[in-house]
Amino acid sequence: MTYLVGVTALWAFSFSLIGVYIAGQVDSYFAVLTRITLALLVFAPMMRWSALDRRTAASLMAIGAIELGLMYVFFYQSFLWLSVPEVLLFTIFTPIYIALLDDLLCRRLRWRYLLAAVIAVGGAAVIRYTDVSSHFWGGFAVVQGANLCFAIGQVAYRRLAPTLPPDLPVHAVFGWFFVGAWPLAALMFAVLGDVSRLPHTTTQWAVLLWLGIGASGLGYYAWNMGASRVSAGTLAVMNNALIPAGLAVNLLIWNHHVILHRLVLGAAIIALALVVSGMGQRREPAAG
Hints:
By secondary structure, the chain is mainly α. It has one domain (about 1-280). The protein contains eleven helices and no strands. The chain has helices at about 1-20, 30-45, 55-80, 85-90, 95-105, 110-130, 135-160, 175-190, 200-225, 230-255, 260-280. Helix 1 crosses helix 10, helix 5 (about 95-105) crosses helix 7 (about 135-160) and helix 10 packs antiparallel against helix 11.
């Protein structure tokens, strides 16, 4: 849980940095490729390339390709269909996908986790709700593709983590996650990127450096570590805890408009979802 809380704070700042210094100014596909490349460079020196069998290494690569690479393909395309408020609104369905995917793999249905995920979605909706346009169904489907990819990656890593060699530090093999994501990011930039919109200020390069090393590198490593140590219900809820955290940073530092009573109420509802997901956890393992 500590990992997830820490990354929530880390990503809360990252969202604002992207909105203020990157979005609309730097080609989004170049930003994605730069982030994944920097994250890979962080972990490459620590990698024990021969420590994992091919099947496990390939599994980590597949998880990285889906959770990070393919997720971004959907996510950035969604902005061609929807306004930014609509995209943000539609991302709140990720917790439900996490709870349902985990139960599907376990061939059971744990109503407590599904209830916690639904409550978390309700809390996020209180914070982020805006009126949607009349032609949004195509964009809605694209965003759900991004949500589903992020959920699949998290659930898959929870199940893979217990099979990793117990005497091998996770950081020594986690680089495979970024090895899998890199080709997709490179393809995205090669096909969809705009070379006329590369970073042109020191601030933009500094933000990308931070996003690559901090948010993508250390952030995804810590998030997946946390995902493997908590229940599926708590993981589902923590995905939406990012929303009040990110809005709080916007309000306190950049003074972006936020309806304060919605923020407080939504955060309280998400906290309730955490309580619901934690009920009875002593009777079942956190992962598997």
